[in-house]
Specification:
It is a single chain. With about 550 residues, this protein is an all-alpha fold. Among the domains are: about 30 residues, no CATH class; about 110 residues, no CATH class; about 240 residues, no CATH class. Helices cover about 70% and strands about 0% of the residues. The chain has 26 helices and no strands. The chain is globular, with a radius of gyration of 24 Å.
Length: about 550
């Protein structure tokens, strides 16, 4: 085996020996379980080591030793109804201690989630029990978050997504589209734009989309001469473009991710309605999603990672034929594939017409999952369903943290003291609030690992600010919600980011250069969107 081939194979199959051969065009070699897990080094390693002690110290200091004036003298007039009732029931002193506990738990959990000192799901379990023991919320409220409607929708979405994996219809579609339309580098990229958008309609887990597509674009990268030990701009673009599209594609649909659904439920709750409409989200978000994806393609392939002429043509003779062979090995369409397509199309139609029939997205997914699991009629059995329970536990902890923030109304207190400190008065122009909230929301994606956490923190703050200044709730909360999926700058920003970084086709510097550029452009776009589309739809009166 050549030295370069050994280096290449080490990124996906470290156990490979001299007597083995590594076929760089074999999609089986790029399954997630075969990808090398990058060891944390340097700053990331120090973050992991120090994260636990820092979280403990932060909790102890805030809860036992700190003296924070605004927590000692909370103004009941700024609290929501539930928080006012809790204020009266617990008494001023107990309510104050609950606020200190909430702030301490919040700070410690953010440190643990960012540093990944312990697994995220374990941090969530600590959050849940800590909030019970410190009296921030009751056991009934804390434990009930596992039954949150968004949690159910996540679980049911994984049932539906398992149909695509088990029947291989998603793989069939992706391979067919690339083979049919991927005649050159440009059309390869456009093919993945279409594939990502289609998968975003049906799969609410961005990690699942990354897992389905990774083997396909890894083989295509190899065909175009991109290898971990010999990186080229085609390889950088194909991986980073997919990372961007996987996330931004999800932003076009309220069902695109659990975080979108959570944001929708928070906004719906503040408006006093049962759920946020699929149509309302789609009309406002999907055009923005498509514009950003096309800008992302142009910025990546034309400006930041322009490809040399030789990188625009296949480097391995017969490479595309191997993809055709992989497609042919799937055989003819099966009855189960047709069933899974039919179930998904019906679910999508019901989601898209929710304003007409009034059935929530969760209830629709429930019906689809029941049909999919029916004996002799459905497509999958329960044992075929791959539900990542560690992600469910992580989400439950994040929702519990959100319930604690709501019980203490800590975001409102923080908003009040911050605005008073900076002298922001009731006469503050809307454009200042809009620019500030959207800026904080989008660039927080560089620091936070969880989209759910960002939704839980910033959407309620946006709602509170809108209410404080007597602006329509949607005018600030909806633009903030549209920025949830911007988590693609650094490897720890999201699960797809971490997964695709293991392909070793780009460096962290490459990721930051492309990702940060797209964040700046996206922020400018949401400002333009607020001045135009969101204004035309009646959500804002314009930014300026």
């Amino acid at each position: 085996m050549s030295e370069s081939l050994k280096n290449y194979s080490a990124t996906v199959e470290p156990e490979l020996t001299e007597n083995d051969t590594f076929d760089i065009l074999d999609m089986n070699n790029y399954r997630v379980e075969k990808l090398r897990k990058n060891e944390k080094v340097g700053f990331e390693r120090w973050m992991e080591i120090l994260g636990g002690p820092l979280a403990i110290l932060a909790f102890i200091y805030i809860y036992y030793f700190s003296n924070i004036p605004f927590l000692n003298d909370i103004n009941p007039e700024i609290l929501k109804e539930d928080a006012v009732k809790r204020f009266k029931d617990l008494g001023t002193e107990s309510f104050t201690r609950a606020n200190y506990a909430m702030l301490a738990i919040f700070a410690a959990s953010i440190i643990l989630w960012i540093t990944e000192s312990i697994p995220n799901y374990l941090t969530s379990l600590f959050v849940i029990i800590a909030m019970v023991l410190t009296g921030v919320t009751t056991e009934k409220v804390a434990y009930a978050q596992l039954g949150h409607p968004v949690m159910w929708l996540n679980i049911l979405s994984f049932v539906l997504a398992s149909m695509l994996v088990k029947t291989k219809v998603a793989k069939r579609f992706a391979l067919w589209f690339v083979i049919r339309f991927g005649k050159n580098a440009t059309w390869i990229f456009f093919s993945f734009i279409v594939i990502n958008i289609v998968l975003s309609i049906f799969i609410s887990a961005t990690t699942a989309k990354a897992t389905i597509l990774l083997p396909i674009f890894m083989v295509i990268a190899a065909i175009y001469g991109a290898r971990p030990e010999n990186r080229n701009n085609f390889g950088r673009n194909i991986v980073l473009q997919n990372l961007f599209q996987i996330n931004i594609g999800a932003s076009g649909f309220i069902t695109g991710s659990g975080a979108n659904l959570l944001a929708g439920s928070l906004i719906a709750g503040s408006l006093g309605v049962s759920f946020f409409g699929f149509q309302d989200w789609f009309i406002a978000a999907f055009p923005l999603c498509m514009i950003l994806i096309l800008i992302g393609w142009f910025v990546g392939t034309k400006l930041i990672f322009p490809m040399k002429p030789e990188e625009r043509v296949p480097q391995i003779e017969g490479g595309m034929a191997r993809l055709k062979k992989e497609f042919d090995s799937l055989g003819t369409m099966t009855v189960d594939e047709y069933k899974s397509i039919a179930i998904f199309v019906i679910v999508l139609l019901l989601w898209a017409t929710d304003k007409q029939h009034g059935i929530s997205q969760t209830a629709v997914a429930f019906m689809g999952a029941v049909v999919a699991l029916l004996p002799r009629i459905g497509v999958v059995k329960w044992n075929d369903v791959d539900i990542p329970w560690h992600l469910m536990l992580f989400s439950a902890g994040a929702y519990t943290l959100g319930s604690g923030l709501e019980a203490t109304d800590l975001p409102a207190s923080l908003v009040e003291v911050t605005f008073n400190y900076f002298g922001i008065s009731a006469q503050t122009p809307f454009w200042v609030l809009y620019l500030g909230m959207t800026f904080v929301m989008i660039f927080s994606g560089i620091l936070f690992q969880s989209k759910t956490m960002r939704a839980l923190i910033f959407v309620p703050i946006a709602i509170g600010i809108a209410q404080k200044f007597n602006y329509p709730i949607m005018s600030l909360s909806f633009p903030v919600a549209l920025l949830i999926e911007h988590v693609y700058v650094l490897p720890f920003n999201s699960k797809p980011s971490a997964l695709l970084y293991t392909t070793n086709h780009y460096s962290m510097t490459d990721s930051f250069k492309y990702g940060f550029t797209m964040m700046v452009i996206s922020w400018l776009m949401i400002v333009v969107w607020g001045q135009t589309v969101l204004k035309w739809l009646g959500y804002t009166n314009g930014v300026f």
